[in-house]
Design a protein that fits this description.
With 444 residues, the chain is mainly beta. The protein contains three helices and 23 strands. It has one domain: Beta Barrel (Porin).
Amino acid sequence: MAHRFKVFQVLGLFFLVATGTTVLAQTNSEINAAVQFNFSNPGARSLGFGGAFIGLADDATAAYTNPAGLTNLSKPEFSFEGRYFQYRNEFLDSGHAFGAPTGNGTDTVAGEVRNRTQDSTKSFSFLAFVYPQERWAVAVYRHELADFQTKFQTNGAFFGPQSNYPLQRFFPVQASLDLKIIDYGASFAVRFGGFSVGIGATSSQYVQRTRVTRFSFTGFEKASYATPMEIEGVDGSANEHVTVNAGLLWKASRQFSIGAVYRQGPKFHNQVFLATATTFGSTTGTFHVPDAYGVGLTLRPTDFFTASFDFNRVRYSQLTNEFLNVFAAGAPAPTKDYRVDDGSVYRLGVQYVVPLSNNVLALRAGAWRDPDHRVRFTGQVLATDDANTAAFKTGQILLFRPGKNEYHYTGGLGFTLGEHLQLDAAADIATSVRTGALSAVIRY
């Protein structure tokens, strides 16, 4: 029976974790299979619009979203925001994939059994100061691009058998991941009539710690977590040199404006390692936040109603440019067997304003489409593959599958007290992530 449960330590197999929002690290470790972070624009006001803010860009968050919009501001403005994220992470825990269960021990359930963890973070997510003049404006800001934490434990699912490999079982694992990326930036904009140009520069601070500990098992018995067999991880702490973002804004009339933006994603280096009781291999890995560009339209048919639409193109394919196979013999090594396509993000938001004497109440709603951007395995099982290689590829096909597009729905309220204070609240609801935001703007 032992040959049917041969565990290949270097070509180790594993399970899937997924949320619905970019892939967290560029290796084929199971914890990175589909964990993603959100590219939502900062600000509760923007969130209430579904993030459709490129063509509007008329508050301090324009410093990041579209720096050309800073020329919309007429008074110095201080803005800050807090956000709450709730993530639902799905993982393959047990069951029997790609075959029928044997009925022995724990191998009694047909199909994949997936469980979910629910993790949450809250943080001070955005801070900015804008100083405008008649034809130009300058801003400085701090923006939290990512704040993600998760941990989980699996029992080790079964899969197979197939014609060219015996029955296999995934390693039971315990895994954890912490990621934070903070941008510190400055933006400048200048206006020429109804046309504005803006440019920004950002330095990013990155911290990541990932651990995946694999445990051995005996045949069909329950997983035992007493003695680690193998530990794999990613350690990263870096400050990225300057990246840039640039924007354009054309206010054709009071009722219509159009904007465009390009944002360069930061690129970080980290240590990727795989350790067993007798060996240790490591190499330098890369975490690349994808570049993005987009256009936005804003319509104001009346003084009380505003509608915005954004189209963004995100270069998710950059995630696999330096992708690592952490189970390559000796040490993690580059691989071309994983792919992710660039994606299109569509955002739509509306606002209706209710005057209240010297104050204003704003009602907002929006929606946006987050395209599937999970890394998928593109290798194929060949008739010439040996049993270990065939089983490894089959496991990768099971774990690194295409995902689905996800739709987010947003709503928010804004309350402006006179000319100097604005308070906003918003929520973003989707299957895999929920976001809440509170922000305030003080004008002098």
